[in-house]
């Protein structure tokens, strides 16, 4: 000891050096470390500057940690106790209440990733009520337990999606896990006439996810791809080489190629937009397969990825936001075949059959060709047989394009089988493409995307 004495005791200002290399410098009273001073512990490397009582830090002071970081605030028996300000070795900042050296009670914390929390703490964990403001703009307000969302709470996600309901272990209990398109198993729509598509978001138990709103859904379409097994080299719907498209797998046992879908707000969305709505944009293996949404989940692109690759941005009418688990696309139209798509019809052999059944009578509605009908009976759609809306089988697809995905999960694409039938109501078809002709009759086109071949003479 080096310093002042009184009555044979250390009293006043002095410096005390311990055997292990620790030391104290500051005030002494009647031989005890009491008052303002500074102490360094050699075994931990930590240093405290502030108030002491009977050799222990007590009152207010500053602790500097050898591992990094510091604390300024109230202490008791050498531990953080009461209100204080802590900066840890990662640079994270906490300001609030402490108990037993831990964050306990109300407090605010700024995390190294930019997230900010303001709420209750229990033994160094967020527990009770609190508000988390994430660096990406998302906000959660509600109950916490063991440092995760637990109880009733509301989240406003940075994508615009909102969820308000029950959380357990950080997961929303009433979150949507799939989408369904309402209506009959096969929807029938008249040529050139608008229709509506109603979607519901469902939970695992099959209940509507009413706690969820704001998820962004995009509509697209595709037309059935048919290739006769006996004449696989023949094209029934010719696609120019520059417009070759990858087949889209559907859960209905057949494949499709992208087809434009339009709305009064969006204009015409071309096949490339339709392909973006499919869940599998890869060549298909042989044989019929059912759609495995979980297996395809990892192959889905985000809307941002598509924009980065040069895809045209979605028109307003092509996307809708979910409201309390429901969404509706209105005035939906299947557009005329886009440039580069050339329908072919199997008519000659059917004309002969029709003539034998009812000579001089009207032609029956053309049906899809079968493997027994030779390719020589086909001919291309000509100007005197306009069909900007060919009847046939189509697929409407609804895709979750919420960006970024809510809690890292994108819902599987929903499919609806649609059959376009002849317009027998007399309603005037809607044509959005400039220069398009009105739909007439019940022509049915079969589509293929194989390279173009000459039509047999």
From TrEMBL:
InterPro entries: MORN. Residues 353-362 have a biased composition (Basic residues). Keywords: Repeat. Gene3D superfamilies: Histone H3 K4-specific methyltransferase SET7/9 N-terminal domain. It holds the Pfam family MORN. Residues 273-295, 353-391 are annotated as: Disordered. This is MORN repeat containing 1. It comes from Callithrix jacchus. The gene is MORN1.
């Amino acid at each position: 000891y080096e310093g002042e004495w009184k009555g044979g005791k250390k009293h006043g200002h002095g410096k005390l050096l311990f055997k292990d290399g620790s030391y104290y410098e500051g005030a002494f009273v009647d031989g005890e470390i009491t008052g303002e001073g500074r102490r360094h512990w050699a075994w931990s490397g930590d240093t405290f500057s502030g108030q002491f009582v009977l050799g222990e830090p007590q009152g207010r002071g500053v602790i500097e940690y050898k591992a990094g970081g510091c604390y300024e605030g109230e202490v008791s028996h050498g531990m953080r106790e009461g209100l204080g300000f802590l900066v840890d070795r990662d640079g994270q900042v906490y300001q609030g209440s402490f108990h037993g050296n831990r964050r306990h009670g109300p407090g605010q914390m700024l995390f190294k990733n930019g997230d900010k929390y303001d709420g209750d703490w229990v033994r160094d964990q967020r527990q009770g009520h609190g508000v988390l403001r994430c660096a990406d703009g998302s906000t959660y307000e509600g109950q916490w337990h063991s440092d995760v969302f637990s109880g009733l709470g509301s989240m406003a996600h940075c994508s615009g999606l909102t969820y308000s309901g029950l959380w357990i272990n950080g997961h929303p209990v009433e979150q949507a896990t799939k989408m369904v398109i309402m209506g009959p198993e096969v929807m029938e729509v008249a040529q050139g006439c608008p229709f509506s598509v109603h979607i519901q978001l469902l939970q695992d138990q099959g209940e509507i996810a009413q706690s969820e709103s704001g998820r962004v859904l995009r509509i697209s379409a595709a037309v059935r791809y048919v290739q006769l097994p006996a004449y696989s080299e023949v094209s029934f719907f010719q696609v120019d080489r520059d417009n070759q498209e990858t087949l889209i797998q559907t859960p209905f046992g057949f494949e499709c190629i992208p087809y434009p879908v339009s709305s009064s707000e969006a204009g015409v969305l071309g096949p490339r937009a339709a392909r973006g709505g499919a869940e599998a944009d890869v060549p298909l293996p042989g044989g019929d397969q059912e759609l495995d949404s979980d297996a395809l989940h990892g192959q889905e692109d985000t809307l941002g990825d598509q924009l980065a690759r040069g895809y045209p941005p979605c028109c307003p009418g092509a996307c809708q936001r979910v409201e309390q688990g429901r969404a509706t696309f209105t005035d939906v139209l299947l557009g005329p075949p886009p440039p580069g798509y050339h329908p072919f019809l199997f008519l000659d052999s059917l004309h002969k059959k029709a003539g034998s059944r009812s000579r001089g009578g009207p032609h029956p509605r053309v049906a899809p060709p079968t493997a027994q009908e030779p390719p020589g009976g086909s001919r291309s759609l000509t100007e005197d047989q306009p069909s900007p809306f060919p009847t046939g089988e189509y697929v409407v697809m609804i895709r979750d394009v919420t960006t970024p995905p809510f809690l890292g999960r994108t819902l599987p694409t929903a499919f609806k089988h649609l059959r376009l039938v002849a317009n027998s109501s007399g309603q005037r078809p809607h044509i959005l493409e400039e220069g398009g002709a009105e739909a007439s009759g019940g022509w049915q086109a079969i589509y293929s995307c194989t390279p173009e071949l000459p039509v047999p003479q």
